[in-house]
Hints:
There is one protein chain. The protein has 331 residues and is of the alpha+beta class. Helix content is 24%, strand content 28%. A hairpin with a 2-residue loop joins β4 and β5. The termini are far apart.
Amino acid sequence: MAKKQFKAESKRLLDLMIHSIYTHKEIFLRELISNASDAMDKLYYKSLSDGATGLSREDFEIRLEADKDARVLRIRDNGIGMTQEELDQNLGVIAKSGSLKFKSENEAAEDIDIIGQFGVGFYSAFMVADHVRVETKAFGAEQGYVWESDGADGYTIRECMKTTHGTEITLHIKEDTEDEKYGEFLDTYRLRSLVKKYSDYIRYPIRMEIEKTRAKEGAENEYEHYFEVETLNSMVPLWKKNKSELDDDAYNNFYKEKFFDWQDPLKVIHTAAEGTATYNALLFIPEKPAMDYYSRDFEKGLQLYASGVLIMEKCGDLLPDYFGFVKGLVD
């Protein structure tokens, strides 16, 4: 099978992105989950526009599966999938966004909150994986396809047997080095924490089979292992709910859990704007400033989200210095 080559500018961009654009390797999971969410948004939009799918929003899900022994991480969705041509266009040309193309071709889709519109997030997978396999089948198509690549040296596309629509991405995680412990991205606790940190408000359930223990029935002081599928994300951002749905306890509990304070905030500001700048903001004035507030190490800033996905933990440009004590977020 002939290997296709990335264009020269794509090779340079891939190298730049892996080593420079993303400073934290952990965000690869955020990017791949966001892509999966977009794929389901597209199929949901299709069901609304032509009624062809017979699917409801409750039918969609994202699945994570980690195999420590094989050093493999899988991210699976049952979204719209891709044809062979779309695979070649979307994954063969870096910075070509299928989501942006989808929005430009469907005017009504402006109301669908597509996340990935720049076409580079997928390639963050190569920060943690030395081989990436994408198995996909477009909705309504009879044939599935596999895209595989080891990185900048190129990629292959071939037919495969896939019975359901959607996409499954398989990452072969790099071996650990003295400086980097890539194996952490196969740890259940680590994956759960990353979903909670970056993708907690993805609108579709992100599910994973979790190993648990329980007391063995009829046996004293004996325990057994079992597996249970858990939904890792909460899906609905508090700040996008109507104020009439929320009470003081809801705001206070969110604040204490999100910003690690044991006291209720003095004041909550929940606001939204639509127009040239459209955003939701949830701000908290704490009972007391942070312990390091008066030190040189203190870093002001609000959490910055885009479409419910965490982009920056502390965005200092959202606050003037004299409001540096304020905690909160802007979406």
